[in-house]
Design brief:
Nucleotidyltransferase, domain 5, 30% strand
Length: 159
């Protein structure tokens, strides 16, 4: 029987760049797993969005370490930056082959994070599909992720 595995993610910084956090929710076999992590005092929205996906996929792999079946996961993300980069496997492969440089030879922003995401997506246990969702549009799990990340940033913000 096919499992419906969902990963909802969000991240942000306020201001951008500034203090920020990332959060995710995993829905797995009717169970809900949540996590939020403070990213630091000077981070960007894009960094936090990428980290949310990376941390969520890593957590899923830990939860399922004793399961030897492929995991078909849908990642729901409101970041066009992440979704547009991740849904094109050829782009990720080309970036990896070019040392995470753009076609003009300049370094790719957030190289280490894209490299980490690429390595996770190459895990043969995972089959990942990305779905772009509209931010702040009343989608309950997206709103929950946003609230978790926003609250974490407020609580951890340096005075």
């Amino acid at each position: 029987m096919k499992r419906n595995i969902q990963l909802w993610t969000d991240g942000g910084a306020a201001p951008n760049p500034g203090p920020g956090s990332s959060s995710y929710i995993i829905i797995l076999d009717g169970q809900k797993y949540t996590n939020v992590q403070y990213g630091g005092p000077v981070v960007t929205n894009n960094q936090m969005e990428l980290k949310a996906v990376i941390y969520g996929l890593k957590h899923l792999l830990v939860l399922e370490e004793d399961n030897y079946e492929k995991l078909e996961v849908t990642v729901y993300c409101d970041s066009a930056y992440v979704v547009n980069g991740a849904i094109h496997p050829n782009r990720l492969i080309k970036w990896a082959q070019n040392g995470y440089r753009k076609t003009d030879g300049s370094p790719l922003a957030n190289k280490e994070l894209w490299e980490s995401l690429f390595n996770i997506l190459m895990n043969k246990k995972l089959v990942v599909k990305f779905e772009k969702v509209k931010a702040h549009s009343g989608i309950p799990l997206n709103e929950e992720c946003d609230s978790m990340a926003t609250l974490e940033t407020i609580l951890c913000r340096p005075n």
